[in-house]
Predict the structure.
Amino acid sequence: MLDFRWDIIGEYLPFFLKGALLTIGLSVGAIFLGLIFGLLMGIFRISPYLLVRTPFIWYINFFRGTPLFVQILLIHFGVMPMVMSEINPAVSALVALSLNATAYIAEIFRGGIQSIDRGQMEAARSLGMTNLQAMRYIIIPQAFKRMIPPLGNEFIVLLKDSSLAAVIAAPELMYWGRAMQGQYYRVWEPYLAVAIIYLILTLSLTYLLNYIERRMATE
Amino acid sequence: MIKAVNLKKSFGELEVLKDINVNIEPQEVVVVIGPSGSGKSTFLRCLNLLESITDGHVYIKDRDITSKQTDINKVRTDVGMVFQQFNLFPHKTVIQNIMLSPMKVRKWQKDKAEKKALELLDKVGLAEKAYVYPDSLSGGQKQRVAIARALAMEPEIMLFDEPTSALDPEMVGEVLEVMKQLAKEGMTMVVVTHEMGFAREVGDRVIFMDGGYIVEENLPSELFGNPKHERTQAFLSKVL
């Protein structure tokens, strides 16, 4: 520790920043896609029809029940070569993270929707609204407010878990940490630097989420 | 206006409505009374299909709502409902609560819906509360907003499911007053309630339910003054 080498951190700083950008890109992209597909899946997941519901239940079981690490490897080396002629690690990472986030977010949506009092749906339906209208105007807006804390949690987990993309050489933040470690055979400098950058990212995200939560609470 | 024929409803093994036959005329005010668990709320909820019907038929303005061909959403626009727990939409202001369905279901323009909402709020005595959220209202005020919300769809029938049961005693009067006014204007009403005074004063007919059956039905003066059935007598002796 006494011979902590600031100079090699300085040397790698541009790469760390570039990596952090990809980390942010992967996270934001996966959150965005996860929200869209997660909402849809959360709704199908509670369908009264067994045949509609079952495939989504198993999708969620699979992506929540197996390690993200394994999913990334399967998708990058197994699935992507089947659907794309040229595989790109960043794209594979985005796909894996999005599929994984979709499963978790679907469960968050389901919980949020089911936490709304039954009387809200009944009142909406008694006023002539269709199930879809009641969902859109009454249930989902109220459920969304309750979903913010668990969604925030999921976003933070997602941001950190994007570091697993390093194993398929997607050049995100952790990838550059490992590259630096490999070049200099040093432990503290690369990993501590990377850890601090992750911390800055998650704290910023926490701050942003708290801000959104406060704003929605006063409405 | 409303006709139930051999209406039956079971929750799993439990048969809640055993064989209900009722015919309600336009502009009639029917009050349904009975002990808890007698099936009176379930009966009311079957009338707009908030409960699925196990057997038998319910006709609303000659449309069989148990038929798959009937668009239940369309039927429901003719049937307003007021709930014990108010069920106002907490994320919307009072006036938004009232305007939402006319705009989304009836496809009214905003001005028209707003005008109607303000009119109705005035009618239930809450014009000054139009732009607040339901959270800031008392129970009695919430229930009056709920009535206004149901009326905004211009229904021909209003169903009331114990509308005053969740209210503090001093607020019961203001809600009953609004309901009396509606009855006077000729609204067809089915009211499940424990307010015997209201039943006697406003009802055209009182139905006494027990154990999933209609035990007795009659004019309020007759049913309260001279109950024929033993179970009606026992119930009335406890509540009056």
